[in-house]
Amino acid sequence: MTQKKTKPTPSARSKKPPRQNSDFPIVGLGASAGGLEAFEQFFRHAPPDSGMAFVLVSHLDPSHASILTEILQRITTMPVVEAQDQMQVMPNQVYVIPPNRDMTIFHGALQLSIPAMPHGQRMPIDAFLRSLAEDQAEKACGILFSGTGTDGTLGLRAILGAGGITIAQEPTTAKFDGMPVSAIQAGYVTHILPVEKMPGVLLSGIHTLSPPLPPIALSGINRILQQLRTSTGHDFSLYKKSTITRRIQRRMSQNNTEDTDSYARFLKENPSEIKSLFKELLINVTNFFRDQEAFVALKQDILPTLLADKPDNYIFRVWVAGCATGEEAYSIAIVLRELIDEYLYVFEVQIYSTDLAEDTITTARAGYYPPNIAQDVTPERLRRFFIKEDSGYRVKKEIREMVVFAVQNIIKDPPFTKLDLLSCRNLMIYLEPELQNRLIPAFHYALKPGGVLFLSPSEGIGNHTELFTPLNRKWKFYRAIPTTASARTMLTSNLNWTTEPTYKSPEDIIKTAKETNIAELTRRMLLQFYAPTSVVTDLKGNILYVYGETGKYLRPAPGHATLNMIDMAREGLQLELRTAILAANQGTPTLNQELSVKTNGDFHPVQLSIRNLSNPNNHQNLLLVSFQDTNHSASEKPERIKRKRTSKPNEPHHIEELERELAYTKENLQATIEEQYASNEELKCTNEEMQSTNEELQSTNEELETSKEELQSINEELVTVNSELQAKIVQLADMQNDMKNLLDNIHVGTIFLDQQLIIRRFTRDATQIYRLVASDVGRALSDIKPELEGKDLLDDAHTVLDNLTPIEREVKTVNGNCYLARIQPYRTLENMIDGVVLTFTNITERNRAIAVQEARLLAESIVDTVREPLIVLNDELKVVTASRSFYQNFKVTAEETVGRPLYELSKGQWNILALRELLETVLSHNQAFEDYQVDYHFPTMGHRKLQLNARSIIGRTGEPQLILLAIENIVD
Questions:
Q1: CATH 1.10.155 occupies which residues in the chain?
Q2: Residue 32: active-site member
C-alpha cells in the first residue's frame, strides 16, 4: 500500500482545545478565471437545506473589492457571507474568501492571514484544501472549477488521501480548463462532472462518509480483499478496516452497488475494477519537507551526528519506505546535499526509495512536480535543486542520481540492510497493531547499530523500547540500540519475506527497477568474453571475491583451510605473486608480467597483473589480481621464457635505430601533450564561458518565468473582476429599467441638474413644465422657457445649492394646472453634493377636491343654520347631506339618510314619479319650483302634507350638480 497519509498536526497546533463535534461535510470550492459562471450555476442547483457548508476560494484582485458575495446572494437562499477571521463554519451557509487574504480552516473555524507569497505566486486554493483535509479528514470535499494553472491539484490530493470526495468540472464545459485538467491528469479526481450535476453527487456522497459497514458485512469485505490479493498479489487484510472499508464504500457508491456481496460479484465480472479498487486503496499523499520543523531537526541535530565519524569515501545508506510520488525521498536527498556542500564531506549517498504502486514510482523517477510545490520548498531550494519548466519544476539530475526508486511491498519483500537512516512516515497509522509490532523489529534489523529511524508524529515504536532509544520524542527520531533481539524476532515473525526465501532481495529489486540499456548489455558481454580471470584481495592477499575460473592458477592449500592467495598459488606463481603483492602495497602496480605456472604436470605461460583497488564500503585498499594466458607453446620451458625476457640484442645499429625511434616518439609525445594541454585550457575557458552564459540564461529564464506567472495571475484576477463587473452591469441594467419604469409610472416630473444647473436627465412628465426634448441633456436649464406663471425656479435652485436647504412651493402652468415644486440637493453615494433635483407633482385634482370639500363644508354649515328641514341631492337623487332640523323633525339619523335615494327615506307615500320629473327638470334645465305639495306618511307623525321648494346648485363648470330640497311647511 502506498505509504503516505494525511499531513500530521504541526507543532503550532500541538496544544489545541477540544475539537467541536461537526457532523456535516465542508465543501471547498476553488476557481479562477471563468469561475463566476460556475459558482452561479452550482448554487442554482444546490438545495438550501443540504446540510453541507460551502467555502469559496477564488483568485481575486488584492486591490479590488469583491462583489462575489452580493452576486451569489441573489442566486441562493442560503446566507452568503464574506469570511472573517475565527468565523465558525456552519451548515447550509456559504463563505467567500476576502481579497488579499490567505484562508485556512482549523477546528472548523476559518483562519485569515496576510499572504506571505508575492503576488502572482500564491496558491490560495491549495492552501485551503490541504488544511481542510487535515482538519475534516473524510468529511472534506473539494471541487475545482474553471481556471488556468495548477492551483488546487495538491489540495485535491490531500483530500483524496484523507478519504474525502474530490470533483473537477468537465473540462469541455469549463471556460478555462487548466485547473481541472491538471487535477484530472494527476489522478486525484474521483468525479468529473458538469457543474449542474455536482450537488447531486455531493448529496449521494455524504452516505459514503458515514461510519464503517456493520459487522454483518465484514464477510463481504474479506471476500473483496481475497479477490484483490489473488489478482494483484498484495494482501490488505492487516490494514485498518476503517480505512479499507471507507475506500471500498466509495468504489461501491461510484458503481451504484449497495452491498459488499454484490460488489464482490462485480469485481469478478469486471477485472478493470480490481485495478481501480487497488489504486483507491493506495494513499498517495505526501509533499516536500512535510513537517518543516522535523526536517530542521533532521538537518541540525540528527544528520550531523550520524555523519560526524564517517571516513572518506563512505557510502551513507538511506531507505525511504512508502515514498509515494517521491517528495520525501528528494527532501532527504536535498538536506544531505546541503550538508555535504556545507561541511565538505567526501562520501557517497545511496537512497533507496520504495513504494507499492508502480505508477507512483514512475512519477517519482521522473522527478517532475507542479508549480504548487513552491508552498513547501523555499525559493533558495527551488533555485538550487530544481529546474523550472513550462508547467512545473523538475528535480535536478544531481539530486535524482542520489535516489533509486523501486517497487517493493514492505510486508512481503525483505528490507534493505546496513542502513544509516530509515524513514517510514505515516505508514503504520494505517496498519493494524499486530502488523505494526512486527514491522518495528524489521526496521531495527535493517539499520546499522546506531542508525536512526524517522517516523511521523502520530507513530511510535510501541513496546519495543529494547530496540530503540529516542533522540527527539516530538518529531519521532529513534536510534537503534546494538542488540541481536531484532534478528531473533525476525526468525519467529510472520512477515512473508522471513519464511519465503523465493522472494527477491532488495538488490535484485533495485536491479530489476533499473531500465536495461544497450551500454549495460555491451558491458556484460565484454566482461564475459574478454575480461581476464581475476581475484580481489586485501593487502595481505586474502581473497574477497573471485571472477572467472581460477583453477589453473590457484588450488586449495594443504592443512588448515585458508583463503590466502599466496598460500593457494600453484608452482611457479607463488614467489612472483608474493613479490608483486608487496610492490602493490607500496603503490607500484605489476602489469602483464610473464611467468610460467605448472598445471596438470606441465608449465603454461601466464601474464600476471596486480592493480590497486579502493573499497568504497570501508575505505580499505584492495588489490585486483588478474591472470591471462599467453600464446607461447605449452612445451616451452621457464628457463627459455626467462632467457627471452632478459636477453639483449647485440646489433649496435639496431640499438641506434631503437633510440632514434624512441627519441622521435618522445618528441611526438611531448608535442601531443602540449597540444592537448592547450586544447584543455581552451576547452576549460570555453566551458567557463558556457557556464557563465548558461547561468545568465537560467537567471533570465527564471525572471521570465516569474514574470509569466505574475502576468498569468493578474490575467486570472482581471478575468474574475471582469466577470464580476459584467454581472454588476447586468444588475445595474435591471435596476435602470426598474427606475425608468418607476419614474414613468409615478407621474412625477423630475429634472436632474448638476452644480452649474446643466440638465443631466429628466422624466417624461417634466416636459409638461419645461419644453424639453432628448437633445436638451447637457444644456443649461436657463435656456429652456418654462410653462409656468410667475417667478422662475432657477433662483430657488441657486439658493438650495448655497445653503443645502430644500425648497417647496406651488406653481401654476399657463394652461391652469397646479404643481407642487420641490427643489432638493443631489447627493451621491458618498454623501457629496453634486447638483439639485427638481420634482413636479401635479396637484390640480387635489386642489379641486380641497375646494369641493371646503364648499361642501361651507354648504353644510349653512344648511345646519336654517330652521327648515333641508336635503341636498346629487344627480342620481341620492341624499348627499341633510340639515340638523331634518333629522330632528323626521326622527332619523345620518346613517339612515345619507347615500340613500330620496324615495327610500321612509315608508311614506311620496308621489315619487311626479317629484322625480320635477327634480330632473331642476337638474337639467336649472329651473326651480316652489310650494310643491306631496303626501307623506310618517309612522311617528301620521299622515302629513309636505310643501317643498327645490333649487339647483351650480358647480365650477357652470352646470347644475346638486339639488337643494327645502321642506317649507308641514301641513297636518
A1: 215-283
A2: yes
